[in-house]
Amino acid sequence: MPKPKAIIIGGGIAGIASAIRLAVKGYEVDVFEANSKPGGKLSEIKMNGFRFDAGPSLFTMPQYVDELFKLADKNPKDYFGYIKLREVCRYFYEDGLRLNASADLEKFAKEIEEKTQSTAEEVDLFLKKSKTIYEVTHRVFLERSLHKLKSYLHWDTLKSLLRFGQIDAFRTQAKANQSFFKDKRIAQLFNRYATYNGSDPYQAPATLNVIPHFEYHFGAFLPKNGMYGIVTALVKLAEELGVKFHYNQKAEEILYSDGRKPKVTGIKVNDKTYNADIIVSNLDIWFTYKKLLQGIAQPQKLLNQERSSSALIFYWGMDGNYSDLGLHNIFFTEDYQKEFNAIWKDKTICSDPTVYINISAKHIRDDAPLDGENWFVMINVPANNHQNWELLIKEARENIIKKISRVLNRNIEKDIICEQILDPRSIESKTGSYQGSLYGNSSNNQFSAFLRHSNFSSKVKNLYFCGGSVHPGGGIPLALLSAKIIDDGIGLVVH
Questions:
Q1: 448 three-class SS
Q2: Quick one: which of 313, 310, 307 has its CA closest to 44?
Q3: What average pLDDT does the segment 163-185 reach?
């Protein structure tokens, strides 16, 4: 008996995870990827002896990656290694304050108490609240479909719904953090977690305070071969399971049968038809509807929702070593609300943006020459709405260099020996993310968890959706969970 066929559109992390899960289930799986390499946003850049992880740079919840190997009866350690970081991040403020956020919570809380007006008790109470939000939300809002009745017919779901008031959905994240911390700089530190899903802490619900729990309870990690090592390990597993990857093959159309209850039949690529029993689109939901689903009624209200923020990233090969910096570094703006107003209200870039620098060579020495460092320098920017990006990039580059040089008291510009740039336009063209938004729709609404597109189509049978633009959201852990939700929703098992 021939195996049923599944096609995955897009070889991002969620698409690869879906391919693995369907292969384990007994499907013959083909992945069609428009680019020459897999990974989507989780890609890499090599230039002048430097290697950069081009997209996500923080690894949390590694159990969701390990789970894919275990499903295939493989030992994750045979494919993929990672270390738990002893230092989560280094924080730099314009007034001279520096904090090294240790993974040891007592040590981090003590440092905050010694250097700021906030106390260790404040930190402890905040992280306990973060844990509570996680306990209430993770099974209901993160690990199950919000769009199927059976998801709510569980005792743990009922318990979570009865505790809904504890997830702090009715005040903004900034308001909540202002109430937790006397020192506004520490409130700012925890406000930044809204940017983990491309949102504004001055609009987004305090439910987003669940995110620090991922880092400070489960830990922050670094793959031994860099973030792109996640992709190479999972692709290797998928290929061993028989998954076929087709690169430089851009899907043109999702095909389906006629009638009152259409059902997927395949896809069209370069005017050639490939048949399938199941199709999973890892492409941004906006492009899936606008480009691939012809003749299907489109959910205009959902597609017209506010998009998440985007990013402007400079990949700098640096001549020299910077002992002040660690793997993850944040240089805060003095006026955080002004920065977010610029992004969300004015659709532009603040003249004093908060700057994030990732330097994987601090741990992976081969990522840069011995006398150099690979700087991934990122600021949050609005999604692409036809701004004058050439001017904005020029101004932002100057402001970023001035800011880092000022805080470190060192002229960094003379050390930049090579450079590449990624902006919202190139993010869209390279990853298929509409307007370059990194996380699909924003979470600047207390009901945003319910407003993301479902992981299945209610119009076309056997059509599924995964990745950061659908439930449960963006970022590696949630993208992997989107694949798990699809897996749980497909009942066919082939022996």
A1: helix
A2: 313
A3: 90
Check pLDDT > 50 for residue 149: no
SS3 string, 170-191, reads CCEHHHHHHHHCCCHHHHHHHH
Specify whether the CB–CB gap between 273 and 255 falls below 8 A: yes
Instruction: State whether the Cα torsion 218-220-224-228 is positive or negative.
Output: positive
Give burial (CB, 10 Å; 0-12/13-18/19+) of 402: middle
Q: Which domains does the chain have, with CATH numbers?
A: 5-42+225-306+441-489 (3.50.50.60), 112-218 (1.10.405)
Q: pLDDT digits over 375-414, tens only?
A: 999 999 999 999 999 999 999 999 999 999 999 999 999 9
Q: pLDDT band at 147, cuts 50/70/90?
A: low
What's the pTM value of the predicted model, to 2 decimals? 0.94
Q: Which two tokens stand for residue 454?
A: 């479902």
- Residue whose structure tokens are 């993310």: 433
CB 279 within 8 A of CB 457: no
Helices 120-137/105-115 angle, 10° precision: 140
Helix (H, G, I), strand (E, B) or coil at 196: helix
Q: Compute how many other C-beta atoms are within 10 angstroms of the C-beta atom of residue 495.
A: 4
Under a CB-based contact definition with an 8 Å cutoff, are residues 315 and 357 in contact? no
